Design the sequence.
């Protein structure tokens, strides 16, 4: 029994230390565009554990002109745009505004569609691999921006191969250190419970 509890503890932590999310798109890109994309921040999990809600933030750069004491200065500022993305194994949805949304999902092997309230796109699947913010206990939030990585797959590749290659991209050393630190924390947390059993 102790072994089962310990094994479950390690598996739960490993699942929570996700470092990237793959959002499949079909046809023209449908995610909210930006010059860079901040790492996604997990903000909730559905009660059935089948989907995760992420805060999605893109940054665009905008040149501005400032006049101060007769001197004209031009500077570049970042202009953030924030959305929410709800991702699951079958696809994702990006709600925005009061009733607007974009939704993308596979409809068959190697095929899918993206649609909103006014248009539908179909086409070859391509992956937008977005980093996920990972925080160690007490660590500050990440502030570095990362570009979105998009990968196209030829239609001849079996979908199992394409999906497994794209969804398994992660920073293995970061995952190992997060798993080790978190596992130690969880082990220390559950030692009293293991003593009781």
Sequence:
């Amino acid at each position: 029994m102790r072994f089962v509890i310990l094994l479950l503890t390690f598996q739960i932590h490993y699942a929570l230390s996700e470092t990237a999310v793959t959002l499949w798109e079909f046809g023209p890109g449908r995610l909210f565009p930006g010059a860079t994309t901040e790492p996604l921040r997990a903000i909730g999990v559905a009660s059935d554990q089948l989907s995760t809600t992420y805060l999605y933030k893109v940054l665009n750069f905008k040149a501005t002109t400032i006049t101060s004491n007769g001197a004209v200065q031009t500077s570049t500022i970042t202009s953030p745009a924030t959305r929410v993305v709800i991702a699951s194994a079958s696809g994702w949805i990006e709600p925005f505004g009061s009733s607007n949304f974009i939704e993308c999902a596979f409809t068959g092997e190697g095929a899918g569609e993206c649609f909103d309230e006014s248009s539908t796109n179909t086409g070859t699947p391509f992956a937008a691999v977005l980093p996920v913010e990972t925080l160690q206990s007490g660590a500050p939030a990440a502030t570095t921006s990362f570009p979105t990585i998009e990968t196209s797959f030829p239609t001849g590749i079996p979908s199992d191969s394409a999906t497994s290659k794209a969804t398994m991209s992660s920073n293995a050393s970061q995952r190992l250190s997060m798993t080790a630190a978190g596992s130690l924390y969880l082990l220390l947390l559950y030692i009293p419970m293991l003593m009781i059993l």
In short: The helical segments are 2-16, 159-167, 172-196. The radius of gyration is 21 Å.
